[in-house]
Amino acid sequence: MTKKAIAIIQARMESSRLPGKSSIPLSDKPLIAHVIERTKSIQGISNTILATPTTKANDVLKNIADEYKIDFFQGSENNVLDRYYQTAVNYNCNYVLRITGDNPFTDSKLASDTLKKAIEENADLCSPEDLPLGTAIEVISMSSLKIAHEEANLPYQLEHVTPFIKENAKRFKIVRFSTNFKCKFENLRLTIDTQEDLKLAQIISQNLYKGTPYPIVDIVNFLELNSKLLSINSEVEQRAMTHSAES
């Protein structure tokens, strides 16, 4: 039986550390537009959905979703797990790809490989273990998403979607795999949470974006030739999974 998979991009305009970041320009396009472009390039998904809170501030994101011809759903602001679940139930799918709107460098090829691996292994949760922060995705089975939705109750479990599954590893089949990706920069940050992250992302995008998504190996090669750029966001601390209040 063919497994149906959808991609859900979570985003909101009320980021606490970088307000309005989803619409901040990156190579003359809103940041979220780059996330959408890369997501639509993932092989094996039937629908791409931009899922935001119901607040008025996020109406601008609906306009972007319409422009890029993807679906749009609004749900809970702080209970992102519920937002994912309520979005997913509308599509009668077997798997959900979790993609965050502050990751404009998600690698479409490696995301495709992650979905393929999840289906082959019949995984409840699947993700690569050797990619730079901000370039990977998570694939979640609909059955495990339903259980998490029913049983998770701690604020960080509701915000970060998959902690309940990770914390109950004996109940779920969790698959972490190596992509054999080589990167000499151990703490490379390619997510966008702060002004420093944004500055680095803008420099990368200005030099590499030519109208279509490019692989993360191109980013690493560029940074190897311009290693001083790494200092721009090297002091930014990544918030722990148990932190709550969606970034």
Account of the protein in words:
- The chain is an alpha/beta fold.
- The chain has a single domain (5-232), classed as Spore Coat Polysaccharide Biosynthesis Protein SpsA, Chain A (Alpha-Beta Complex).
- The chain is 36% helix and 16% strand.
- The chain has nine helices and nine strands.
- It has helices at 31-40, 59-67, 80-89, 108-121, 142-151, 155-160, 163-167, 195-208, 216-225; strands spanning 5-10, 25-26, 29-30, 47-53, 71-75, 95-100, 125-128, 138-141, 174-177.
- The strands form two sheets. Strands 5-4-1-6-8-7-9 form a seven-stranded mixed sheet, with helices on both faces. Strands 2-3 form a two-stranded antiparallel sheet.
- A hairpin with a 2-residue loop joins strand 2 (25-26) and strand 3 (29-30).
- Helix 3 crosses helix 5.
- It starts with a strand and ends in a 22-residue tail after the last helix.
- The model has no long low-confidence stretch (mean pLDDT 94).
